Amino acid sequence: MNKAAMDKVTLQDGEGGNFVAENIKQLKGIFPEAFGDGCVDFETLRQLLGDAGVIDEGDEKYGLNWHGKKKARQIALTPSTGTLLPCPEESVDWDTTKNLFIEGDNLEVLKLLQKSYAGKVKMIYIDPPYNTGKEFIYPDRFQDNLDTYLKYTGQVDDEGAKFSSNTESSGRYHTNWLSMMYPRLKLAKSLLAHDGAIFISIDDNELANLQKICDEIFGRENFLGNVAVVSNLKGRSDDKYFATAHNYLVAYSKGGFVSRGVPLPESYLEEYSEVDKNGRKYRLQGLRKRGSGAKREDRPNMYYPFYVDPKDGQISLDGDDRFSVKVVPKLSDDSDGRWRWGRSTAFERLDELVAKPVGKEKRWDVFQVDYADTSDGEKRIKPKSVWIGPEFANEAGTLEVKELIGKGLFDTPKPVALITYILEQTVNDEDIVLDFFAGSATTAHAVLQFNKDNESSVRYVCVQLPEKVDESSAAFKAGHSTISEISLARIKAASRQMNSDLSKSFGDSGVKVFKLANSNIKAWNPDRADLEETLLSHQEHLIEGRSEHDVLYELLIKRGIDLAVPIESRNVSGKEVYSIGYGVLFACLDESIVQADVENVAQGILKWYGELSPSSDTHVFFRDSAFSDDIAKTNMAAILEQNGISHVRSL
After folding, report:
1. What's domain 82-261+382-518's superfamily in CATH?
2. pTM for the full model?
3. DSSP labels for 528-595?
């Protein structure tokens, strides 16, 4: 039998995306000649870029800088060595749902999601801390973010590191907020699909700074707009100069975003007073340009004649015996005006135009027939830059939370209608939506509501820090110890409420719960005073107390597999074998595999592999300490590799 190697998985294999290595790989693919001896030759790279104005050698550059920006950029590039532990007992419909709720520090979680969800998220909505001079929670030590988080959540004993608040008196009021946001937005961009968009709620305190760092991260050319959302029509009476009635929604894309628009509001339908012979409602919109820039000299190429059939109002761009009435755009003072469309557009859309006599003079004018619906169904329009209505008000969000899980649990939760309005513009069926400042879980609730209203299957991924609630708060008195507990309670309550409405079918109302923790793989941390004992203690590479499912889901993260893929199991010769993602990955984590088991286990995996016929390379994992000796391990790898499975690893 040929000998085959079974490489061990290291702690580094479990890191949540090696961003620097990936960036170098991409750069090397574009400019291979700029690399030599494994290093970047910056002089050659400079020559290859030429004098295109992309190299700025000056000391003074335009942009936003602050003390700590370099570190914030670096922390976004540092891989995470954490993992996400599955919590089926806290979940709903664990085996079937594709919705994810992750409890943990969003910086670490975003890193862990990189391999599985890079370029796959269609819409991101976040409502980060507004930095009003009050507290917001952030890690004290960015370089040890996971360690800080584990201590904060009590997963390790040392209380030396904790999360702190950011107050105006701290001396780093803006820099702390920027250093908190920058790496998270950098990671969010990697997850966003090419045709995706991110929407960020913010107020005046950091609006300008937020747009500057978003310009840098997403590119100014990908700025979609800044929407004013009227959240309190009465305004805040305690404000100094103006009673603030709104906050902002800053939107950026990845480059390929195309808005789906929003459904035509009910109030607009009153304008569609005409009905054609097929019963379709429509309105007539004058084709002549009105307002500023309406003169002929403003756009001379948009001054040209139409010719009208006086019997039925039909229109042509060429005159003849039938189309005998010439019509040109005239202003009210009888001077020459212009049309809204150029001649080529009018030629292409001639069937949308009709002429009618207007005014006392019964002078012919040209109109566009604008229907209230389209051939595909409802008509959609561009959303305005100001969103106003009771459905967008903070009061609506407060009432929604109160009805579901109780009063006073959140100060100003966002209303569901705000997020569903964003979903209308951005997502299609089965798209993924991400919110990594989940808070009151409005985004998850909105996705459920959107799916029910549209009979769609949009998925959500929500991330929330288990921030402790004050013991004097209504939340604590209601039995909640952390914000993440309240978030999850709201998700489950919203699902129950929607499922209770039997008048309309409802799809995926479940949620898979995960919690951030340190890796299942032991870090090599030798005791120099007793190396023998260190070696013996590292014969088992997995952390004691972790379950097989804990390890399986770290394998999903490691291999870049969707956390919602199905996991099936079979008993093969007394050993539990798992198939993940229809054969993309197999695992047998039994604690004992002797030489006599090798052939049967290998053949069982190969049989299952043959049944599933996965399209991508299959990986198989075993527990390293399970094999009785190196011969058993080598034989297992050899049998699998000889039958087409070349990626065999041990944990």
Report:
1. Vaccinia Virus protein VP39 (3.40.50.150)
2. 0.83
3. TT-HHHHHHHTSS-BPTT--HHHHHHHHHHHHT--TTS-EEEEEETTEEEEEETTTTEEEE--S-B-H
